What we know:
Layout: H1 8-18, E1 27-29, H2 39-43, E2 50-51, E3 60-61, H3 72-80, E4 85-86, H4 91-94, E5 101-108, E6 114-120, E7 127-130, E8 136-139, H5 151-155, E9 162-170, H6 171-176, H7 179-197
Parallel strand pairs: 2-3
Antiparallel strand pairs: 1-8, 4-9, 5-6, 5-9, 6-7, 7-8
Amino acid sequence: MPRVLRSSTVIKSDFCARFPRLANTDWAIKSPWDDRYQCIAWAACRTHIRWWPVSGDPTVHWPPGAPLDDSVDAFVESFSRLGYERCTGSIDACSTFEIGYQKVAIYATRDHCVLHMARQHFFGKGWLSKCGSLEDIQHADLHSIEGDPSPLVAAMGQTYGEVAAILRRSWWSALIRYCLFRCGWAALKFWTYRRKHGQWRV
């Protein structure tokens, strides 16, 4: 059931319960509730199907020939097919905005199992996350949606763990794959939706 408009009060309560670090930070709701895609698809600039490393499921996409496991290294290799390469240096240094580059972040458990991905705002205004089947949000930094990175807590679906890697690609690389168009179209579509229904600022 795609595109459900929940009230900002309900959304704020839901997100702050799931992500306690969001409290007292500047974050905004960027899309309606939509279960057709999730964070990995959003990081890949897709909003019509879920992405996950499985095969034989027509409702889920994964780059052909990419590794079929949920390790950080496998996701790095898989997203290299979209033109991304792993940034070197500390997470905080790599997370800074660089003109000419599009960046995504990979969240994982301590044993390097991927739990979430976020995409940097095109103009460096924080990060964008599609939180499961919930709304997309814009958060000021990567750490505001981190949680307990232990595999046990992750197995219960209660955390996104910690940022384990940041990838980047040039705007040209995104352009030739039509990803800039897809990202721009999604931003315009959701902006129009917010204009119609309110800004949902929290």
